[in-house]
Design brief:
There is one protein chain. The protein is α/β, with parallel strands linked by helices. The protein is about 35% helix and about 25% strand. The chain has a 6-stranded parallel beta sheet, with helices on both faces. It has a 5-stranded mixed β-barrel with strand order 17-18-19-21-20. A 3-stranded parallel beta sheet has the order 7-10-13, with helices on both faces. A hairpin with a 5-residue loop joins β17 and β18. α7 runs parallel beside α8 and α11 runs parallel beside α12. Bound molecules: 5'-deoxyadenosine and iron/sulfur cluster. Iron/sulfur cluster (SF4) binds next to α5. The site of 5'-deoxyadenosine has 12 residues, from β15. Monomer.
């Protein structure tokens, strides 16, 4: 028998890319490829890229530069570029990087196996009408206690700074019946927690279901103990979804709800179509439904036109909400987006704001972690810890928890009391 070919995948960016990479690995698995962690032994290298900020895009070109020697020594090795940079800059990648054999955009992954077999350089950045996931084979067998499941893709919101509507295309929801089947298959393979993914997941509308409807149906699946979803837009946070947070025990008390800015002027310039007051009102309703919910967000500082006063309004909003964590980004002008035409805020001003905001968020994160000390948490073990007899998993609030548990196994769901906290993890004793 021929030795299996080896596939090395590097994933940049968001969780949807993580999910896509898994599915591409499965598709290539059906073609006889096994995954490797060592790029030097790969027969094929696939870079699954992110275009959201300039720095993320640049990583692709520096990584490709580093692959040049390897490709020169091993010309038969295939180099593929997938993901959002592939979608946005396919032609430029081929022109600048002769070592690249194929470029495949996010909506064409089901065509990857055929592209790998074809002669010559291949590029596919179409937006085909068929659902790529229907044409990507799924692996069987045990696959660990947590999984992502893409339920919705693309975005019609057109925030002025964002490339997603261009790279991932228009918003499309996958049919609920297929998603329920996939969820059941995942559970049969050992999964106990599923995170529903979408660029605008709370806008989900497949086969007459809202996201809340889908969550309620998924919660009926025997053995599926936990559900999460990410990432959401404030304007799609319907009352039924808020009610689900109160009523569906499997839905974890955790919500990532990006707001981007606390200034109404900047929110308007960003085309977010909501105000800071609307967002705060929403947070109030969600906390009323689920008082222990942990909130996280995304922020952009230095958006064109942002004044010190605008920025202080962001700081005020952060103080008013009290987050468990948040991603803070310095604005990055993206080609083709409306905001890229505007005069940028000086870089050093944006840097200073970023530091100030990150300082506040870090303090809030530490306070949220510290507040868990003495509390009982449920932990879903994901892997053994570094110390002997230790297991590591996530709490309901997605906090990493270390538990001393000599007989614990990956996939166990246990109760434990938190004894100490640092910024990124908790220690707890088994109950
Ligand atoms: N510059 C900086 N941050 C951005 N994001 C999206 N586009 C940009 C940009 N051009 C951030 C937003 C979004 C997250 C995924 O990335 O905060 O919520
Ligand atoms: Fe980008 Fe806005 Fe759509 Fe989120 S909602 S993907 S930030 S355009």
């Amino acid at each position: 028998m021929e030795a299996p070919k080896k596939l090395f995948i590097k994933t940049y960016g968001c969780q949807m890319n993580v999910y896509d990479s898994e599915r591409m690995a499965e598709a290539m698995g059906a073609e006889g490829y096994v995954q490797t962690e060592t790029v030097e032994e790969a027969d094929m290298v696939l870079l699954n890229t992110c275009h959201i900020r300039e720095k993320a895009s640049e990583k692709l070109y520096s990584d490709l530069g580093r692959l040049r020697n390897l490709k020169a020594a091993k010309p038969e090795m295939k180099v593929g570029v997938a993901g959002c940079v592939a979608q946005a800059e396919g032609a430029e990648i081929l022109r600048r990087m002769p070592l690249v054999d194929l470029v495949v955009g996010p909506q064409s992954y089901h065509r990857l196996p055929a592209m790998v077999k074809a002669e010559g350089r291949q590029v596919d950045t179409e937006f085909p009408t068929e659902d790529k996931f229907d044409h990507l084979p799924q692996r069987k067998g045990y696959r660990g206690p947590t999984a992502f499941l893409t339920v919705q893709e693309g975005c019609d919101k057109f925030c002025a700074f964002c490339v997603v509507p261009y790279t991932r295309g228009a918003e499309v929801s996958r049919p609920a019946s297929r998603l329920l089947k996939e969820a059941r298959d995942l559970v049969a393979r050992g999964v106990r927690e599923i995170t529903l993914l979408g660029q605008n997941v709370n806008a989900y509308h497949g086969e007459d279901r809202t996201l809340a409807g889908l969550i309620r149906e998924m919660a009926q699946i025997e053995g599926l103990d936990r559900l999460r979803y990410t990432t959401s837009h404030p304007n799609d946070m319907g009352d039924d979804l808020i009610a689900a947070h109160a009523e569906v025990p499997q839905l974890m008390p955790y919500l990532h709800l990006p707001v981007q800015s606390g200034s109404d002027r900047i929110l308007k310039a960003m085309n977010r179509k909501h105000t800071a007051a609307h967002y705060l009102d929403l947070i109030g309703k969600i906390r009323q439904a689920r008082p222990d919910v942990l909130l996280t967000s995304d922020f952009i500082v230095g958006f064109p036109g942002e004044t010190d006063q605008d920025f202080q309004e962001t700081m005020r909003l952060v103080r008013a909400v009290g987050y468990g964590a948040a991603y803070c980004f310095k604005y990055s002008a993206r080609p083709g987006t409306p905001a890229a035409e505007k005069t940028p805020v000086p870089s050093d001003v944006a840097d200073a704001r970023l530091q100030e905001l990150q300082g506040l968020i870090l303090a809030q994160q530490q306070a949220a972690q510290q507040a868990m000390v003495g509390q009982v948490v449920e932990v879903l073990y994901e892997k053994p810890g570094r110390l002997p007899g230790q297991m590591v998993g996530k709490s309901q609030h997605l906090m990493a928890v270390h538990v001393q548990d000599a007989t614990g196994k990956t996939g166990d769901l246990v109760r434990a009391r938190v004894t100490s906290a640092v910024t990124n993890s908790l220690s707890a004793v088994l109950l």
